[in-house]
Amino acid sequence: MNIDVSKIFISSSSQATLQPLRSRLKISLEDAGHKPIMYEYGDLGLYTDDPNQDCLNKVKDSDVLVLFISNKSGSFSRSNPNITITYAEFITALRHDKIVIPIVETHILQFYINHMKEELERAIHKYVEQHDHNPRFTYPIVKSLLQEHKEGDTVLHKKINEAGVEEFIWAFVHDSFTMTRWTYNYAIADTPDLCTFLLKVLSQVLRNSMKFYLHEKEITQNLLLYDELTVYQDSVTKFMKCLSNSVLNLPLFFKTLAEYLPGQAIYDPYSDYAEHPVPIVNISECKAITLYKRKGDLLLFVDSYGTKTPTAHFNINDEDSFVSQTYNKDMENDELLFYSEDKQMIYMTKKTGELVLSFHFYLSEGWSSRRVNSYEADITSAIMDKRQTFDFAMDLLGGMLNG
């Protein structure tokens, strides 16, 4: 993001009372070196037959969404009666990690905090207790709550009527207040002062956000490491449950290990430049695991998962056996890939001490062995997505069964 040319999408209902603000704000933002994007000024470019989607696409292309909430709901979405077009812009900005600056009419936000917030939170909590999940939309909860007050002719119902605010706005204010890091209130009628206030807010928010932007790579890497550590810790707990009285429950161990070998897609290297990359082949989740252990000149079957007819043994010098080849290569730090064109099956093998494991995966298409070999590194990388977990499992297995 470049602060000097920040793209700022101005979102609000099209009510007449907001038009002077929108017009003045466009001038103020341009004078400050920003690029405002506003529907009424043709900033969406070439329109399609779906102007609502045009707006959402521009939200995705923006750096900041400034949202004004007053007393009018605006147009509701044709495809979803629980949200308005403005609300769709708001949610789209949040889902695409845009900076969202909501500004709510002062008396509306104060009314919500003083009279609606706790009531609405209780109603949502009641919904969760009844349905065991959060409501997908807040508006139906608001309508039900307001209907209860109307039927009961409560004091709150009279106060809400006197506020002159359309029902949907209470849902919008609630979601804005709970989903964003900040929600400002301002008397929107004070257009010049509000423009000055917004420029100050933008300067502060963008300046603070740039600190994170400059360290985005480092922050992202740390988050990924945190996610990996969480998965690893969870897997260690699961694998340790496979031990009972110092004996490893192999069927349970294999079943647990297979959970960390999920299906993956392989993409062409050039697909990174495509908007919607299409996989060239899919690798299934791990379908079977077999374990063999050397005894004399034989590699004897020990146990398996997902296969009913495992081979009982292989001669250690059997050149046609993937298991024997793996044992003789003596590459304990690496995994080997083999492929059966007839079965359309990938076999990933691993040696640990006197043990050899074979993991079976289906390919979604019938590739040649030559093509599989050309994508060997990509396939191995996809299968070994949970490397730390896999290595821990191999250390545990080797420590329990070798010797």
Average pLDDT, to the nearest integer? 85
Can you give the helix content as a percent range? 40-55%
Q: How many helix segments? A: 14
Percent range for β-strand residues: 15-25%
Straight-line distance between termini:
59 Å
Provide the structure class: alpha/beta
Largest sheet: 6 strands, antiparallel
**What is the tally of beta strands?**
15
Low-confidence stretches: 270-275
User: What is the general shape?
Assistant: elongated
The main sheet orders its strands as 12-11-10-15-14-13
How many structural domains? 2
Give the radius of gyration: 30 Å
Order of helical and strand elements: EHEHEHEHHHHEHHEEHEEEEEHEEEHHH
Compact description:
This protein is α/β, with parallel strands linked by helices. Helices cover 48% and strands 19% of the residues. It has two domains: 3-214; 235-401, Beta-Lactamase (2-Layer Sandwich).
How are the elements arranged and paired?
Layout: E1 7-11, H1 19-31, E2 35-37, H2 51-61, E3 64-69, H3 85-95, E4 99-105, H4 106-131, H5 139-152, H6 155-163, H7 167-179, E5 184-186, H8 191-214, H9 216-240, E6 243-244, E7 247-248, H10 250-259, E8 264-267, E9 279-283, E10 288-295, E11 298-305, E12 313-315, H11 322-329, E13 335-340, E14 345-352, E15 355-362, H12 369-374, H13 376-383, H14 387-401
Parallel strand pairs: 1-2, 1-3, 3-4, 4-5
Antiparallel strand pairs: 6-7, 8-9, 10-11, 10-15, 11-12, 13-14, 14-15
Helix pairs in contact: 1-8, 2-3, 5-6, 5-7, 9-14
